[in-house]
Design a protein that fits this description.
407 residues, alpha/beta, TIM Barrel, eight-stranded mixed β-barrel, two-stranded antiparallel ribbon, 19 helices, 13% strand
């Protein structure tokens, strides 16, 4: 990430926008100004965001590519400045209903719509919007408690509909209810579902067991031939591992064509982080795509936050800590049982068992960023002696790295 001074003027959080197939259709980036009495430089902020979501080249006569980021700007002054800067077709912008209903903002909204920026109205207007204004919006974000079955006063703009998006769906059941009632997406991580209990533990799928065997072999530094024999049990796993190793995020100077080649280039210790990704990507279930998305970004963010330590071993452990923090939900197994079969260092185990240790506060900070809790983000950043610019650079770098890894 480039050094953008504006990143020291904001706090950032993020969450997913999830479609009915339980895929992550976009990410929501929430921006909190550090000083309520001063709006950050909107142009500089958009330039920093463009490092991760660059403006896509458009082809004449074709619509712009689907937006992959929605901006939730906390602060009317900052939102006005961003609207005036016209972010472009690669971004979506959320506009509170009271601003959408204010005629003073109509011209700015029309410029954004004409430039291809996707607009989302946030909340239910107190009075019906003019049809020409409502037609500028593609989605309406409704808060928990607002009835999605009664969106007609908000969502009828002549012959087209403004699609409802349910915010605050923090359990699988809440998401199911929202989709049954007509939501085209839900906002938020499904963190409020109960964690797997220790009783009734089920067996692990064969591909997960293969990855665990491979990780244990790497931990014991078994000969390459033995490791390759384990990997040959599942050609799909071998393909995924090679894709990870050859991704831009890894930055190897040559293409890796075998596990033996990877061991020669990386060594056993560096290979562990990519096996961690392979393990979480083997999960299957209704929310697996969302959880894998979170696990990859947690690992990369933990690692980026550890850059201040200057210790490669510690950063590698922090990556694994972030990725494995979601293993119980991904594999539907209690953490205690997983730690008995997954080889991880004691410092990582302390954080995963919620016992603190050197990585516990970093994991808490990552979770605060996911929950878009600005007060917790600030408090934990201060406890770790991390300024807002360092935390925000780490977050944007992690989001960029994850987009390089994923297909």
């Amino acid at each position: 990430m480039q050094d953008h001074p504006v990143l020291g003027q904001v706090a950032l959080g993020y969450s997913p926008m999830i479609d009915p197939q339980r895929g992550v259709m976009a990410l929501r980036l929430t921006v909190f100004p550090e000083r309520p009495d001063a709006a950050p430089d909107a142009v500089a902020l958009l330039r920093a965001i463009a490092d991760v979501w660059p403006p896509a080249a458009t082809v004449a006569g074709q619509p712009p590519p689907r937006a992959r980021l929605t901006l939730n700007l906390a602060g009317e002054a900052l939102l006005r400045d961003v609207m005036a800067a016209v972010p472009g077709p690669q971004l979506m912008v959320e506009v509170p209903a009271f601003m959408a209903g204010d005629a003073a903002h109509t011209a700015a909204l029309q410029r954004l719509h004409a430039a291809g920026t996707t607009l989302l109205i946030k909340g239910r207007p107190l009075a019906p919007l003019k049809p020409e204004v409502l037609a500028l919006f593609s989605h309406c974000i409704l808060e928990p408690g607002e009835d999605l079955r009664d969106v007609a006063p908000v969502a009828d703009a002549g012959s087209r509909k403004v699609s409802p998006v349910q915010a605050g769906a923090r359990t699988a059941a809440a998401a199911d209810t929202a989709f049954r009632r007509g939501a085209v997406a839900v906002l938020g991580w499904p963190w409020d579902d109960e964690a797997p209990a220790a009783a009734g533990r089920s067996s692990l799928p064969s591909d997960v067991r293969t990855v665990l065997d491979l990780m244990q072999g790497v931990d014991r530094e078994q000969p390459v031939a033995q490791l390759e024999a384990v990997l040959r049990r599942d050609p799909t796993l071998a393909f995924r591992l090679m894709r990870y190793l050859n991704s831009p995020a890894f930055g190897l100077p040559v293409e890796v064509n075998s596990l033996g080649h990877a061991v020669m280039l990386l060594g056993y210790q560096r290979l562990k982080r990519w096996l961690a990704l392979l393990l979480v990507s083997s999960a299957k279930g209704p929310n697996s795509q969302v959880l894998i998305c979170a696990a990859v970004r947690r690992g990369l963010l933990m690692e980026a936050l550890g850059l201040e330590q200057g210790d490669a071993e510690m950063r590698g452990e922090m990556f694994i800590c972030g990725v494995f923090s979601l293993l119980p939900r991904l594999l539907q197994q209690p953490m205690a049982g997983l730690l008995s079969s997954v080889p991880v260092p004691e410092r990582v185990q302390q954080a995963l068992r919620a016992e603190g240790g050197p990585y516990g506060a970093y994991l808490d900070l990552v979770q605060a960023i996911e929950q878009e809790s600005v007060y917790d983000i600030r408090e934990l950043s201060e406890r770790l002696l991390l300024g807002p610019a360092a935390v925000n650079r780490a977050l944007l770098g992690a989001l960029k790295g994850a987009s390089d890894i994923e297909p």
